[in-house]
Amino acid sequence: MNMLKLTQEGTRKLENELKELSKRKREFRHSPDKDFIINRMNEIESLLSRSLTWPVVKESGYFVQAGSTVTIEETVFHERYTYMIVHPFEADPRENKISVHSPIAKAALGKTINTTISIQAPNGSELIYTIIDIQNC
């Protein structure tokens, strides 16, 4: 069984959701949503039992991995973007948290600083970035 890596925020959200569902389980015992709630509780318990929580402190990393905060620079316009690579459950582009399954994460995983990565855009063009910083747990 593979261990999942979750941020402290992600672990806390799952634990809070589980507590809330547990409190409300009685309310739903005669509801058509009962099965959904029980299944969701089982899913959360399974996720938590197979997960590790990343520490808050980050330090310079040698290569990109799940849990890394990576800064990339677009090679033409020199715009910089910083993303945290997280489990798909926690992905939230508005908070710059991208899934390990996203194109950027897939291209960056295992790479080091000053490595150039390319991503195929949906329109067929190629986006090229350079990894300029890596922070790992």
Automatic annotation (TrEMBL):
Keyword hit for Coiled coil: yes
Record-linked SUPFAM superfamilies: FKBP-like
Protein origin, superkingdom: Bacteria
Gene3D superfamilies: Transcription elongation factor, GreA/GreB, C-terminal domain
Keyword entries, A-Z: Coiled coil, Elongation factor, Protein biosynthesis
InterPro entries for this protein: GreA/GreB_C_sf, Tscrpt_elong_fac_GreA/B_C, Tscrpt_elong_fac_GreA/B_fam
GO molecular function: translation elongation factor activity
Matching Pfam families: GreA_GreB
Stretches assigned to the Transcription elongation factor GreA/GreB C-terminal domain: 64-135
Coiled coil region boundaries: 4-31
Xref: PANTHER family: TRANSCRIPTION ELONGATION FACTOR GREA
Name recorded for this polypeptide: Transcription elongation factor GreA
Taxonomic source organism: Fictibacillus barbaricus
